Amino acid sequence: MKALVFRGPGQSVWEDVPDPGIEEATDAIIRVDAVTICGTDLHILKGDVPEVRPGTVLGHEAVGEVVEVGGDVRTVRPGDRVLVSCITACGRCRFCKESAYGQCRGGGGWILGHLINGTQAEYIRVPHADLSVHALPGALDGKDAVLLADIFPTAYEVGVLNGGVRPGDTVVVVGAGPVGLAAIATAQLYTPQRIVAVDPAPARLEAAKQLGADAVAAAAGEDAEELVADLTEGLGADVAIEAVGVPESFEMCTRMVRPGGHVANVGVHGKPATLHLENLWIKNVTITTGLVDTSSTPTLLRMMAAGRLPASSLVTHTFPLNQMEEAYDVFARAAVTGALKVVLGGQPHDTVAVKATSQGK
């Protein structure tokens, strides 16, 4: 089969690799119908995630069809359409029993495209399939459903829930990439008073407004901090969600949050960020970090099937699976291409891609 293989920092190749097979009785083999690229994949290619060894197939998000299962798999069978979660869960360890699947100690957690071969391939081996794949409602489009593999549960759990968003809050989302936009969409479930989006890219700020942001600001200079101060009479945001993963955006969040507020860090950081405790110690600020657990995925699947999540608007570019390298190039140059979420599989929607590219110019 073909797969995208990590060859070291800055190097990946779409090439022939051996087909996966059942290795444990809890495994499932999935034929990929739709797969996407995550910002974390770009971090891996930059060398920010040293645990990923050369030779690993990248990717941790997919939708596909079950073609084979091990003898102990009970929840899916060959022929089922399924969502492959970015998190694998053994279901037996202490953390899985607490629904903290991201911290699984039984051979799960974030392993796909990280510690074992991932989803950017024609076929995938998924360990612990009973808790790590989810059957899809028949009417749900694969290119929409694939967004529930990572970005929607990440935004919802690590951003909105960890941030403690409540009715009437002022919520600031720093970073209007796919996860930040999903945070804007899911924060609205808790009826905040206002949502402010911060990003340097005009196209992404426009997308944020379309998804429900009440105000937007460029990340450069002090515009964002001044806007939040003006909107809150100098108090600051109740919740600041960091969805970039660079020191500047994290430190901006800590400056914009009010006393007693919450900073929910979602971004994947490759460099140290300064924690200014000389300013924060007196403010009663709560700072949370986290890897998504995907415990909310069944709920989000029901919401998407009911039309309550705006998935399609986040997909700006689609490609056939064999154009993986081209898709990476478009996604990595999002400031130029206007890319939000890139989905591979099936037939490309050229009109969508052209529109998104023109927005980025």
UniProtKB/TrEMBL annotation:
Essential cofactor(s): Zn(2+)
InterPro entries per record: ADH-like_C, ADH-like_N, ADH_Zn_CS, ER, GroES-like_sf, NAD(P)-bd_dom_sf
Ranges of residues in domain Enoyl reductase (ER): 8-344
Gene Ontology molecular function, alphabetical: oxidoreductase activity; zinc ion binding
A Pfam short name: ADH_zinc_N
UniProtKB keywords: Metal-binding, Oxidoreductase, Zinc
Oxidoreductase recorded as keyword: yes
Entry-linked SUPFAM superfamilies: GroES-like, NAD(P)-binding Rossmann-fold domains
KW rRNA-binding (keyword) present: no
Family: Belongs to the zinc-containing alcohol dehydrogenase family.
Name of the featured protein: Alcohol dehydrogenase
